[in-house]
Amino acid sequence: xxxxxxxxxxxxxxxxxxxxxxxxxxxxxxxxxxxxxxxxxxxxxxxxxxxxxxxxxxxxxxxxxxxxxxxxxxxxxxxxxxxxxxxxxxxxxxxxxxxxxxxxxxxxxxxxxxxxxxxxxxxxxxxxxxxxxxxxxxxxxxxxxxxxxxxxxxxxxxxxxxxxxxxxxxxxxxxxxxxxx
Length: 181
What we know:
The protein has 181 residues and is an alpha+beta fold. The chain is 52% helix and 29% strand. A hairpin with a 2-residue loop joins strand 2 and strand 3. It starts with a helix and ends with a helix.
């Protein structure tokens, strides 16, 4: 039984994550689909159509952070968070494979000068972060695009990537994180 559990911990776990207006992810274990958030959301929508009582939508953490700090502050917040995580789990990143990484960010604000300033600040944060990720881990980047949109008022972001690892390393990282916590 222990040998079977150990073998299962060595089999690959794959998670595909994408964000285009909504966050979607799929989880696979040994090529078998375990979870698909798109199916979950469609089932919830069907159930919501059956019940006529509307539920109030709570703003997500990212949207609240964006409204409070703007695009520059939000990108800096997440880059600092990613840097902390990279420092803590650098040993784990050697065992995680990032594939088909695509990242697109459109920087926009009401003022063209502010858009240019935010664009420069975002580029100064995002490109070194992805450079550090490719240095520390096995990462295959398809594209990283940052655009300055001077004729728009709202910034937007799209990304997608596939993460592959063995559950054994994730379990070790969880135990280390729990011990450190």
